[in-house]
Specification:
This protein is of the alpha/beta class. It contains twelve helices and nine strands. The chain has helices at about 5-15, 20-35, 40-45, 50-65, 70-75, 95-105, 125-135, 150-165, 205-210, 220-230, 230-235, 250-260, and strands spanning about 75-80, 80-85, 115-120, 145-150, 170, 185-190, 235-245, 265-270, 275-280.
Length: about 280
């Protein structure tokens, strides 16, 4: 079978079970099985695929057809130009979360040295990417701390830190329980889906990604309330807090920040035009 025919088979199979990104997933899985680059997929479209590789591809397409996430099959996800290792039990990095890192880097570009916290770090994509972008801009004396309650997340963050050559402090902690210092900036993409809404989200996420990283409790605001309430101790005066939020949560989170005395509260929209990143200053 020609490569282009095999990928078409993969796309058709994934479309038949309602996979939204069937075309891109079919190509990505072909790259994974064959060890090809994105360019190879097009340059070798008319090449014959060997039987062993063809069977391997059909097998991963069958796995993906169950809505098992691509990133868990390939074991990685690109984020901010870096390849992050992904595995079951830890939330997969999303493209819109890159906006949080971009804003954090921009807001602190004049700081010669900074102490930053990534709370609810998951794969470590926020804190590690922030650290690396700061190093690329000539800042190599920063202290960046990553915290998460999940043992799987902590282990994966450490693996990603090592693989990407970052130097962060990674702490297993229930929010601020094991955090002993204050910071110039706190970054967080906490669980923010209402418990009652989890059954309505996309099957790929609902069935396979960790509920611990999704469930924001009854109103979806639990972790924002907990983090904001403790900023007196953990965020320095004039410090910045930056959150990823659900599309309909800005007004509620803005009020939480106002009640705590934060100023310069702004919201940034994601690629779909939805409220996604909230920034405020203490």
């Amino acid at each position: 079978m020609l490569l282009k025919e095999l990928i078409k088979y993969g796309q058709d199979t994934l479309e038949s079970v309602g996979i939204q990104e069937a075309a891109s997933d079919a190509r990505l899985l072909a790259m994974h099985v064959l060890g090809f680059t994105y360019t190879d997929i097009f340059m070798k479209a008319n090449d014959v695929v060997g039987l062993e590789d063809e069977n391997g591809y059909r097998n991963v397409i069958n796995v993906r057809s169950s809505h098992y996430p691509c990133q868990y099959i390939t074991g990685s996800q690109d984020f901010m130009g870096y390849s992050f290792r992904c595995s079951e039990g830890v939330l997969i990095p999303r493209p819109e979360t890159e906006l949080l890192v971009e804003e954090a880097v921009l807001l602190t570009q004049e700081y010669e040295r900074i102490k930053a916290l990534d709370m609810c770090c998951g794969t470590g994509c926020i804190g590690i990417s922030y650290y690396l972008k700061r190093v690329e801009s000539g800042h190599n004396k920063d202290i960046v701390v990553l915290g998460d309650i999940s043992k799987d997340a902590i282990e994966l963050s450490k693996e990603n830190m090592f693989n990407l050559g970052a130097k962060c402090d990674i702490v297993r902690t229930d929010l601020f329980e094991n955090i002993g210092d204050s910071f110039d900036i706190i970054m967080s993409n906490p669980p923010y889906i209402k418990t009652s809404d989890i059954e309505d989200i996309m099957e790929d996420v609902r069935e396979y990604e960790p509920r611990l990283a999704l469930d924001g409790m009854e109103d979806g605001l639990y972790f924002y309330k907990e983090i904001i309430s403790r900023t007196d101790k953990f965020l320095r005066k004039d410090g910045i807090i930056i959150f990823e939020i659900g599309y309909n949560q800005y007004q509620d989170i803005r009020q939480l920040l106002l009640d705590k005395g934060f100023t310069d509260i702004t919201v940034k929209k994601d690629y779909a035009g939805l409220d996604r990143i909230v920034i405020a200053r203490r």
